[in-house]
Amino acid sequence: MDSDRPKILILDDDPQQLEIYGLLVKHANFEPVPAVVRFSGPEYPPDIDIALILLDYRLNSVKTAPEVAQEAQSRYPGAPIVVLSDLWSLPADVASYAATFVRKGEPQILIDTIRALVANGGSPS
Q1: In this structure, what DSSP letter does residue 6 have?
Q2: Of 3.40.50.2300, 3.40.50.720, 1.20.1070.10, 3.40.50.970, which CATH number belongs to 7-119?
Q3: Which residues contact residue 4 at a Cβ distance below 8 angstroms, ignoring those fewer than 6 apart?
Q4: pLDDT tens for the chain, residues 1 to 125
Q5: d(Cα 109, Cα 114) in Å, to the nearest integer?
Q6: How many C-beta neighbours within 10 Å does residue 54 have?
Q7: Is residue 106 a contact partner of residue 83, using CB atoms and an 8 Å limit?
C-alpha cells in the first residue's frame, strides 16, 4: 500500500460496488482499502491507518449497517464514517455513527465529502 495517500476503507457486500468505489477513490488520489462484508461481517484489513470509512447501508449480512459501523468505529476510532445509500436521507439507526451521508450515484459529492472530511480531520465543514 502507498503510505503517502490517505487510506479509505470501503465496506460493502457487493464486490462490484467495492471495485467501483475503489476506482473512484483512487482517481481522487486516495488509497482504497476494500473490505467485503460477508455473511459473518466485514473482512477487515490488517491494522493500518484509515483516514475515512465508506459504509454501504444495505448489507446482505447477518450484521446490520449500525453493527458494522460500531465495529468499524471501535477498530478505527479517528476515522469518520460516510454512509452510502440509495435512500433520500441518513437512516436514524446508523446516524450516531455517521459523520455524514451521501446518496449513491453522486460521485462528485462523494469525493468532495471525502476530501473535506479528510482535510478537516474528520469533522464536517
Answers
A1: P
A2: 3.40.50.2300
A3: none
A4: 546 899 999 999 999 999 999 999 999 999 999 999 987 778 888 779 999 999 999 998 889 999 999 999 999 999 999 999 999 999 999 999 999 999 999 999 999 999 999 998 766 65
A5: 9
A6: 26
A7: no
Q: Which of 117, 106, 123 minimizes the C-alpha distance to 21?
A: 106
What DSSP designation does 63 have?
Answer: S
Annotated domain spans of the chain:
7-119
Inter-residue contact 25 to 11 (CB < 8 Å): no
| Strands 52-56 and 7-12, sheet pairing | parallel
Phi-psi region of 29 (alpha: psi -120 to 50; beta: other; left: phi over 0): left
Name the residue with cell 450484521.
Answer: 63
Radius of gyration of the chain (CA): 13
Pairing of strands 31-38, 41-42: antiparallel
